Amino acid sequence: MAVESCGDIHALPEDCIANALSLTSPKDACRMSVVASMFRAASQSDAVWSRFLPSDYRDVISRAVDGSDSLLDGSRSKKDIYLHLCDHPILIDDGLKSFSLEKWSGKKCYMLAARELSIVWADTPQYWQWVTLPQSRFAEVAELLDVCWFELRGKINTNLLSPGTNYAAYLVFTRKSGFFGFDYKPAESQVAIHAHSHDDEDEDEDEDNQMSDEDDYMFPGEGMYRGPNIEYPRDTVYPKQRADGWMEVELGEYFVKSGHDGELDMSLMEVKGGNWKSGLIIEGIEIRPKKCK
Description:
PP2-like; F-box_dom; nine-stranded antiparallel beta sheet; F-box-like_dom_sf; F-box protein
């Protein structure tokens, strides 16, 4: 049986092609604009990229403190806005968070500044100090001077994130010369969801997903640096270098379900070793979609 000619597709109106492209993904739309000239103009249209932008993108951009609210002045196409948010995280909420988009999916990404975290002893100058680093996106970062009890926590509401998405939380940090104390005991991390309310039909499911300190549940110990001659658990996670020059270590992951409103609580602590620690510089905690291996 002969294959029917697909030449008639060239006669489709541009807005029809644009509507079809908007049902794909940013990655697919970009690919199709390269391989088929008939898709090129349609793939640039606001109709396509409006579907790829989060529904609340205007509200988020309006909270920018770094001049990025100019993105809403009407001079930019929706594709320009999308790509800007992918390549240039914007500072929002008094500069305590940054917001960006994952380029190939359009999923939301946030970073909580160190000032937005709860860090034990952070306001005691003999233990921590707040400094400015030119390579940080935030006005201040937290520098660890000397502590035995290392503990930090961050929180974000799940309704700020993209539903139907598996997210991971990462501590973003660097270290100074003289860094020490994190090669004795692995630090322990936890990512927990605390639901704001329960529907009767979802109550059991929410309780399964709701973890707290009282549950005595910890994700596997995750050492920030591997010391010599120390046996760590097999599932220990180690830091990785980031493209922006910082380092990161994964704290845990959580799947954000549609219609579930709760608070994602992320923490990292090392309080069992009893040894002094120093030289760690915290930029914040980043929450972004986790890539499949």
